[in-house]
């Protein structure tokens, strides 16, 4: 966004002075994912991670235990989020492969699942 879109498809025409500020904001702002409970979990994990990396190695582990974490439910929730993201990427990749294959060769109905 730091450069003028010159009418590119899907572009937004912002003033030259606004574009650098919006570019910085877009790097600092994270989107919300799913339900409020899931977003709360993501925010807590982000906070823990940032705190963990911002402190010296001797103090790192003290900060992790300051949060009220229910290990099983949070770990399961995190694993579900990660798994769903991975599966979503795999589905998109598979759809692209099937589309490309169907353009290059005739597929019989028996082949499609």
Write the layout of secondary structure elements.
Blueprint: H1 18-28, H2 36-54, H3 60-64, H4 71-104
Structure report:
- The chain is mostly helical.
- The chain folds into 2 domains: 1-30, no CATH class; 34-104.
- 61% of the residues lie in helices and 0% in strands.
- It is built from 4 helices and no strands.
- The protein has helices at residues 18-28, 36-54, 60-64, 71-104.
- It starts with 17 loop residues before the first helix and ends in a 9-residue tail after the last helix.
What integer is the average pLDDT? 65
Structural class: mainly alpha
Q: In whole angstroms, how far apart are the ends?
A: 42 Å
Strand content: under 5%
> What is the helical fraction, as a range of percent?
55-70%
Taking pLDDT < 50 over at least 5 consecutive residues as the criterion, the unreliable ranges are: 105-113
Major β-sheet annotation: none
Query: Could you state the order of secondary-structure elements as H and E?
Result: HHHH
Number of domains: 2
Total of DSSP H or I helical runs spanning 4+ residues: 4
Radius of gyration: 22 Å
Number of strands: 0
Shape summary: flat
For this entry, give a set of tags.
0% strand; mainly alpha; disordered C terminus; 113 residues; 2 domains
Could you provide a short overview of the structure?
The protein has 113 residues and is mostly helical. 61% of the residues lie in helices and 0% in strands. The chain has two domains: 30 residues, no CATH class; 71 residues.
